[in-house]
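Aim 2 progress. For HIRAN domain-containing protein, the working sequence is reproduced below.
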Amino acid sequence: MPLEYDVEIFGLAESTHERSCNRHAVCGEQVDVGSLIRVKFSIIDGPNGIEEALPVVVIVNGEERCRVGFLPNKYLPRKDELVEKFAQVCEVYDCSESRYRRQQSSRNGGMAKCAWLEHIPYLE
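Predicted structure tokens for this construct:
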């Protein structure tokens, strides 16, 4: 089954599960339209105990920097396909003109929509 064109990440406004560092109180606050992210795999102590997760890290100046959020758990069955994939942030929902998306972001600790880099169209 092919990947969808885009994916939502969540938790950008939270600092739990290694989403803070010595440079940022909340690492997801540095994510903006155009930011590059990479999917990772991790085992975390979640609300239901120890569980698998797909965190995303931001790429800055060609280097992996901070864990900024997570992919939804519905992607866990496809983890082998997704880990190490790159995507680019297309929209940060906190800044969206859509009231629904701003509310959705607030309920989910900060959200953004990203496009998988393999789906970026070629310039003709």
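The mean pLDDT is 90. This observation will guide construct design in the next reporting period.
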